[in-house]
Amino acid sequence: MRQHNNQNLQPENNSRRQWLKSVGLGAGAVALTSSVDSFVKDLHAAGMPTEHFPSATPNVNDGLVRLSSNENAFGPSKKAAKAMQSELLNLARYTDATVDVLAKKIAKQEGVLPEQVVITNGSSPILFGYADWITKNGNKLVTSMATYEGIPRGAEFMGADVTYVPLAADMTFDLDAIEAAVTEDTTAVYVCNPNNPTGSMVDAAKLTAFAKRVSKKAQVFIDEAYIEMSDAYPANVQSKLVAEGHNVVICRTFSKIHAMAGQRLGYAIMPAEQATSMGRLLRMGGVNYLALVAGMASMDDHENLNVMRKRIKIERDKLIGAAEALGQPYAKHPQGNFVYLDTGMPHDKFAEKMKAQGIKVVGRTWPGYDTWSRISVGTPAETDACVKALKVVLA
Ligand SMILES: Cc1ncc(COP(=O)(O)O)c(C=O)c1O
Predict the structure, then answer these.
(1) Which pLDDT belongs to residue 284?
(2) Are 162 and 141 in contact (CB under 8 A)?
(3) Domain carrying residue 42
(4) Which GO terms describe its molecular function (predicted)?
(5) Atom 12 (ligand 1): residue with closest C-alpha?
(6) What is the pLDDT of residues 67-105, one digit of tens each?
(7) Comparing C-alpha atoms, which of 221, 316, 302, 222 is closest to residue 258?
(8) Is any ligand 1 atom within 6 A of the Cβ of residue 224?
(9) Is residue 226 part of a domain?
(10) 186 C-beta closer than 6 A to ligand 1
(11) For the chain, percent of residues with pLDDT exceeding 70
(12) CB-hemisphere CA count at 13 Å for 224?
């Protein structure tokens, strides 16, 4: 029951090769695995704990290196995997009590009250629930151009009035312009920090001051999906704003640094009354048990998170190096697990060319940035393959 039912949890190299073959990823993937293996040896030699590097979506057998969805290709903490394995037979009960345990753990970590925490299957339900909340509470959202679409597109889809403020010349958020766009009848302001797709990070003190002022007029929603990957973490987290009673929501996910996108777990921190009503709606049907168990183990695995931050930075620097060597403009100082660059060609053409080189990059664009594309970092071998492909496509 331990491992033979779930080959993707096997750290052992031969098994992984066999599994890659069995799902049809073929010789290219096996070659990637070999260089991954040598990287793992290097990390071991450097005293860093390592685990296997899972395929992002074992069930999508398109043979491409998947650098399109900002997943964390390094895979979850081994401790999280073990925690799930040991709980596989405990799935008969609903999870309310376990949700409460995780809420307490998150509350302790973030310095807020458990009743201010809403836990869901990934953070996307929070984003869409929040878009719905906007439509019922004044219907007006202010955000930036070139930001994550969950809330703005969701709100637009539901009929809200969304104002998109242009980025500053250096591609960071123009917080002053965003503040100037907020009026007395604005419902909410969405700030993604670090931002997807630009990766840029707002200065922590500036954002705190901004949120304190703006939240007097409209609720400020700060999406911190990638915050644990940033150099300034944890000094730059904004949970304290909720603890201090400001009209602010903080959103987090286990899909990114915790590498649990496939398991689905996310949470928001918000004023308690709102958390009660929103939590009731968003948690309808509960949160999946193995995600809760894995999430708690991963939160405790600080060593894994530190190593993950280092690994992601190493891979991100490779993509930055490639953009610089090729002379392609890119959004500077990215702090997530992705880089946003101007390829000089329409994004769909770039995606097609990269696909021909075996690399899948994001298949959509952001209005105003048609020649810009976002590339996620992968494992060392995957990022190297991407750099090679970039040299061909952008030569
Ligand atoms: C900024 C941001 N927020 C939220 C999400 C949603 O992630 P999930 O539903 O996996 O938590 C994503 C996914 O890419 C994201 O980039």
Answers:
(1) 75
(2) yes
(3) 7-76+302-393
(4) pyridoxal phosphate binding; transaminase activity
(5) 225
(6) 999 999 999 999 999 999 999 999 999 999 999 999 999
(7) 302
(8) no
(9) yes
(10) no
(11) 85
(12) 25
